[in-house]
């Protein structure tokens, strides 16, 4: 699946601003520091990719401090890195994890949603849809190694993966807390959750805006495994090895068959979904709520 129009334009703009990339120009992997070990580690500003071509696996580390919020730049860079791996036949699986201590992702970047114009909100929401679609429909095996708090849009990313492994730390909660913020999740994210934990559990989780700590997350099925923090990466890689043992063609056709209807319902109503979002987020009352919420987040430290 290729990048959608707006996201592609932004990706090109990012690529044109090549100086921003600390690593090599995308598409031209460089040897890892120290070199000569056959690995092809690459990075843009906000995503670090550690490839292991011999295993057919790459680890993508989200590193957009402080909280890996889903800014337009972050989503664009993430999708560029993902596409690069998808276009390289050496890679069949990706482990997604965080490089920001204690936070997998804080979800939507609230500064993108505050005090901007409708065209910006439309572009932003299109990028969120694109992120979800690209991950949800990826041919590769995706394993989320969740090493931090994972609310809302962070949970959106994790839910697209084939497997979720959560580090056992009571602070590392996961879920869709949107109703607690006075907002409603989009229908496609609701469908993704229903496919994962079932209808009844989703009703409770969504209406109450539940954030599940590890034991409850495992019990409800929003994660597949909970492991000690120091075993997260090794567990994710061994889960991956099990999935990699399945012939790719059969596995990804099966994945597509299982996910097609859910993805299609967004693809068919993409523009209406964007319009809905723009109308909602542009309301004065929502803008006020957002400003108060952001202010509270900032004051937390003081
Ligand atoms: C109120 C929302 C209203 C409207 C949204 C509108 C429409 C959306 C409709 C549907 C979408 C559904 C799908 C997804 C929804 C979302 O993702 S909404 C975002 C929900 N996320 C959150 O509510 C998380 C908020 N953050 C936190 O709870 C905490 O930051 C944390 C637990 C993730 C981490 O805690 P700490 O490590 O203690 O870090 P700090 O709280 O000190 O934060 C550091 C720094 O980062 C800023 N920040 C935190 N989260 C965000 C964010 N989501 N976007 C932008 N910026 C964020 C925070 O303000 C601090 O900034 P500074 O003070 O350092 O400047």
TrEMBL record:
Superkingdom as given in the UniProt entry: Eukaryota
Keyword terms, alphabetized: Acetylation, Fatty acid metabolism, Isomerase, Lipid metabolism, Mitochondrion, Transit peptide
Compartment(s) where it occurs, according to its Swiss-Prot or TrEMBL record: Mitochondrion matrix
A GO CC annotation given for this chain: mitochondrial matrix
Molecular function GO terms recorded: delta(3)-delta(2)-enoyl-CoA isomerase activity
Metabolic or biological pathway: Lipid metabolism; fatty acid beta-oxidation
Keyword Isomerase: yes
InterPro entries to which the protein is assigned, alphabetical: ClpP/crotonase-like_dom_sf, Enoyl-CoA_hyd/isom_CS, Enoyl-CoA_hydra/iso
Primary localisation category: mitochondrion
4Fe-4S in keyword set: no
Record GO biological process: fatty acid beta-oxidation
CDD domains linked to this entry: crotonase-like (cd06558)
EC number: 5.3.3.8
Swiss-Prot/TrEMBL catalytic activity: (3Z)-hexenoyl-CoA = (2E)-hexenoyl-CoA; a (3E)-enoyl-CoA = a 4-saturated (2E)-enoyl-CoA; (3Z)-decenoyl-CoA = (2E)-decenoyl-CoA; (3Z)-dodecenoyl-CoA = (2E)-dodecenoyl-CoA
Family: Belongs to the enoyl-CoA hydratase/isomerase family.
Protein purpose: Key enzyme of fatty acid beta-oxidation. Able to isomerize both 3-cis (3Z) and 3-trans (3E) double bonds into the 2-trans (2E) form in a range of enoyl-CoA species, with a preference for (3Z)-enoyl-CoAs over (3E)-enoyl-CoAs. The catalytic efficiency of this enzyme is not affected by the fatty acyl chain length.
Assembly with partners or alone: Homotrimer.
Protein name: Enoyl-CoA delta isomerase 1, mitochondrial
Native species: Prolemur simus (Greater bamboo lemur)
